[in-house]
Amino acid sequence: MKILVVGGAVRDTLMGRPVRDRDYVVVGGTPEQMLALGYRQVGQDFPVFLHPMTKEEYALARAHRRSVLEEGAAPVAHAAPGVTLEEDLARRDLTINSMAMTDDGEIVDPYGGRADIASRVLRHVRDESFLEDPIRVLRLARFAARYREFTVAPETLALVEHMVRAGELDHLVAERVWLEVTKGLKEDKPSRMFELLRDMGALKVVFPELDALWGVPQPPEHHPEVDTGVHVMMALDAAAAAGASLEVRFAVLTHDLGKARTSASEWPKHHNHEHLGLKPLKNVCARWKVPSAFKELAVIVCQDHTLVHGVAKLRAATIAQLLKRAGALRSAGRLEALLLACESDARGRLGLEDREYPQAQILRAAQAVVASVDAGAIARACPSADQIPARLHQARVRALKVALSQDMREARA
After folding, report:
1. Crossing angle between the packed helical segments 246-254 and 292-309, to the nearest 10 degrees
2. Which domain CATH number covers 158?
């Protein structure tokens, strides 16, 4: 029985990057041997064992086995003592992920991963194994976002384009797509994942609502980059640069979907695109089974980002309604998420990447004013509980009007 470090840990070691997790492959071993050594078995599809002390994962060497697969599901693999290390590495997605390392640091590299790291190339290992699991198209794009200096091998691009034409991406499992999307959103420049998917023709299958934004013009006085798809990618990268949460990044990614649904006869203007974007956004969330926290923030950003941009011109009643609708009266964190998404939208414009965003301070101040209203006192003064919401809203609007008037007097002075 041989145990070797495998996959990402070997790749990152060779690239001089920090190794976050170590996975191990066990060649020539059996489940009985692993259990006898104190390892704990986890997983249902194939034997994976947790080390009794470190809790790191050790997987028995396995090879893909041809079978009738459920559409979109991961390929079936079988583990056996007779599966060789080379067979185990052959089933992996990219050459840079198909290397192993022995205890003494020797690199086992049957498929040229080391050379591809040196050449900065993302290349699939084998046509057969890549074709067996179409989710690898998204993994390829995710790694392209992580390793921005890498290019994709021409034969890998050609294979993905073939897979798209053959309909191989039409039945991906929602949970697996969402997992890859969230991993891609975590990267420092997540736009590259979606741009590569688009270049390969895969974005129109996985995310047609986003793919439709390229070629849709915007007013150049507000958007010097003009193209809506380009703008959304710039805004997404601005959110990443600001260290935004995944929920914020997803909201930025989907905030302008409605611009593909406005009347082309009115372009580059996009009247009511905020409302028009809600249906495609909800379609995306349903298709990918997006968690409710992501969906809720994305809906708020989609429908209200232009109101936030123009908050300095809003009436007190509109600001109070905006804060309530955004959930800012229940959670300051929700307001901050909305503001960061809108600031990223404002900065995702050619030549305006470093612009100030005073709207954030205006809304923070408005939230503080609204929060200062004594809701309990108003509730106690109401003869009927049914009157509380309206009375509370009126009190908040009055407080905002006083604050806004004070701000105007100070500005004039």
Report:
1. 60
2. 1.10.110.30
* Cis peptide bond N-terminal to 154, omega within 30: no
DSSP state letters, 16-78: T------EEEEES--HHHHHHTT-EEE-SSS-EEE-TTT--EEEE-EEE----PPTTSPPPEE
Q: Whole-angstrom Cα distance, residue 28 to residue 189? A: 41
Share of the chain above pLDDT 70, in %: 93
d(CA 10, CA 95): 11
Hey, how many other C-beta atoms are within 10 angstroms of the C-beta on 71?
A: 11
Burial 229-260 (b: 16+ CB within 10 A, else e): bbbbbbbbbbbbeeebbbbbbbbbbbbbbbbb
Backbone angles phi, psi at 107, to 5 degrees: -95, 125
When comparing pLDDT for 43 and 221, which is higher? 221
Query: In the chain, how many domains are there?
Result: 4
Q: Are residues 230 and 339 in the same domain?
A: yes
Residue 28 scores a pLDDT above 80: yes
**What letter represents residue 329's amino acid?**
L
Question: What distance in Å separates the CA atoms of residue 323 and residue 329, rounded to the nearest whole number?
Answer: 6
3-class DSSP assignment, residue 112: coil
Distance CA 162, CA 335 (A): 45
| Residue numbers of the domain that contains 280 | 213-359
Residue at a domain's end among 186, 206, 226: 206
In a domain, 402, yes or no: yes
**Does the pLDDT of residue 407 top 70, yes or no?**
no
**pLDDT per position as a tens digit, 60-83:** 988 755 444 455 455 555 566 678
| Percent composition of the chain: helix, strand, coil (DSSP 3-state, to 5) | 55, 10, 35
Q: Which of 51, 86, 119 is the last residue of a domain?
A: 119
- Tell whether 287 and 402 lie within a shared domain: no
